[in-house]
Every structure is written in C-alpha cells, then in structure tokens.
Design goal:
237 residues; alpha+beta; 6 helices
Length: 237
C-alpha cells in the first residue's frame, strides 16, 4: 500500500529515503554519440537546461539529436533523497523525476528552441504519468538555471496551455522551478544514451501532436506569449 501511495503522491522530506553522501556507482566519462564529456565543468559559452518528460531513455535521444547540443545525460531531479538509485526513484520514495540534462551552445540552439522540443515531445497534462508509464518519477518538469530561463519557460507554458485548451486538453501539470535547490543526480551508466546502446529499446516518448510555433516566428520567448499554433491537419491523398 505504501508503494501504491507514492505512485500518485510526492513524499515529504520526512517521508523520503535518506540517501547517501556519495554516488553508489560510477558514471561513464563520455557521451556514446556526441563524444563529449558527460560531467562538467563544461567549455565556456555553453549553458545547461534540465527537463523531465517521462522515461528518460527516449527523452535524452530527442535532445542529443538536436543541432547545437554539446552533450546530454540522464539523472534524477526534483526530489529529496541524495544520490538515489534507479530502484529507489522508481519506488516513489525519493520524490525525484527522471530528468535529462542538456548542455548546449545558445549561439546555435536557443533555450526557447529546446523548450519547443520539450513541450512537443510529451503530454504535459498527465500529472504523475506519461502514457503507460505511471508514477511520480514520470512527471513533467523544467528546472531552470537563471531568471531568464525561468521567464522563458513560464511564457512558453502559458502559450502552450492556450493551444492545448483549444485542442481539448486539460491544464498543464508541468512544474517549473529553479534548479539551484534541486540537484541533478546522474543516473547509472546503463541508462546513459540507452537508446544508442539498445536501438530497439523502449522509448515511451510521444507528444500530443499540438505544435508550438517556432520562437523566431513569435515573441513568446521574449515577452507576450502569442505564438501558438495547432498541429496541421493531415489530408488523405
């Protein structure tokens, strides 16, 4: 019953597992696709973005395939337990969600473009689940690294909320919170770039089909969020 409870309820700090001061496993040195280091420090000029959008295997692939992304890694974020393991996170007793850390060059791919990919790659209205994956570890989240990121994430959420409502979806449940008090704990090595190592492996990532206009076409990344557009209709030939 306790396990079931924490499938749809975030534990308080008092209820969460205690964790540990050091990671219980090693993290690989380099990205298997991009070839760059997984852990920082990163080269000057690069920025970090953190996203949770369901099972992190498929989510990570979405981002490493994006031009301007220097490296990606998966981990656990937004909970209470220090240095958790995958099994602990899946129990619901840590409060973390499965997250992807994206290290990117903002001169090539702006943060607003990453937000567009984030929103369109999952259903942000599902609460503690994503499709058939059920549990608090699959909740939608954006953890921001600056006030500028926070403002852009909130503006894009407001824009996407409007078009989702117009398309018949319920309200967005995504949490948008500062990353500085929500540490990112890298996941075990076998999770890193999982779908590169296992091309036929489980993905679990799928969007609503509702599109957010490109940032270059709108001003939602700068001020008033007006750039929203429904997915184009498919006409049978």
């Amino acid at each position: 019953m306790l396990f079931s409870r924490f499938k749809n309820h975030l534990p308080t700090p008092e209820e969460a597992l205690a964790g540990r001061t050091e990671p219980p496993f090693a993290v690989p040195d380099r990205h298997t696709v991009l070839g760059n280091p997984l852990l920082g420090p990163y080269p000057d000029g690069l920025e970090i973005a953190d996203f949770g959008l369901g099972c992190f295997w498929g989510a990570e692939r979405k981002f490493w395939q994006t031009e301007g992304v220097w490296t990606t890694l998966v981990g656990y974020q937004g909970g209470h337990t220090e240095n958790p393991t995958y099994e602990e996170v899946c129990s619901g007793h840590t409060g973390h969600t499965e997250a992807v850390r994206v290290v990117y060059d903002p001169a090539v791919v702006p943060y607003t473009a990453l937000l567009k990919l984030f929103w369109e790659s999952h259903d942000p209205t599902q609460g503690f689940r994503q499709g058939n994956d059920v549990g608090t570890q699959y909740r939608s989240a954006v953890y921001t690294h600056s006030p500028t990121q926070q403002q852009a994430a909130e503006a894009s959420r407001d824009a996407y909320r409007t078009v989702l409502h117009n398309s018949g979806y319920t309200d967005i449940t995504t949490e948008i919170l500062p990353a500085d008090t929500r540490p990112f704990y890298p996941a075990e090595g076998y999770h890193q770039q999982y779908l590169d190592k296992n091309p036929a492996g489980y993905c679990g990532i799928g969007g609503t089909g509702v599109k957010l206009s490109a940032p270059s076409e709108t001003n939602w990344g700068r001020s008033c969020p007006t750039g929203i557009a429904p997915a184009p209709e498919v006409t049978e030939q």
